[in-house]
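FW: tagging you since you asked about this chain on Friday. Here's the raw sequence from the shared folder, copied in full. Didn't touch anything.
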Amino acid sequence: MSRSNPLALLFACVALLTSFGAVAAEQCTATPAMIGAPSPTLPHLSKALAAGHVEVLAIGSGTLLGPRSSDQGGFADYAVERLRQEWPKADIHLTVEGTRGALASEMLTRLGGELAKHHVQLVIWQTGTVEAAHKLPTHTLAQTIVEGARKIEASGSDLVLVDPPYIHVLAQRVDVESYAETMREAAQETGAAIFPRFALMKAWAQDGDIDMEKTPKAELRTRHAELTTCLGNALGDFLLEGVQAK
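HL: got it, structure written out here
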């Protein structure tokens, strides 16, 4: 693999992140609240849960995807499963629209189509990863997110943004944190919630909970499965905070 191609490096990491199913995730001790992420406010999700039917749209690039051909999935699947556990009488349906290598601008086009077809109460929008790998201008990403957030708000849905993952080898070559910061600023501007995936994964790595850099090759599949489960459970708990704050 060429050291000068951060996108190829990203795709190699994503392939591992999204190829394996869930296992017991006992180690991810850091939570959004522990790293100072503000609790979301999700009135449309809260109302829909109380009514007993929820439509969730998860849209993003390759890091959103899991092995969709099986009963196992990506982190959005586990997040929705946490909602189902806490609201067992509610019918909660998840639609996943993930495309490997997709930019936020491309997702914006798909987003408009999905919102026109379905009335959803919650949109989980994972983005910024491909922009970071390509070193694209952060202000373009911000403009796209703000435009998408306005569309989602007008449709009567809540929005939770998911920022890029922390991958140490990629972060050494690209200032990924600046893209995460751009997304935080866009969320603040629009009133959207943001799930701090970058900060969580960095905290887990630094604490030694899930540090892929130090994981033996034979254990990579298991550890990547744990990471997906940890992210999904943390996102699910984050959503539940927003419901409890209604």
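FW: The longest strand covers residues 53-60.
HL: agreed, and Residues 14-25 have pLDDT under 50 and may be disordered.
FW: great, closing this out.
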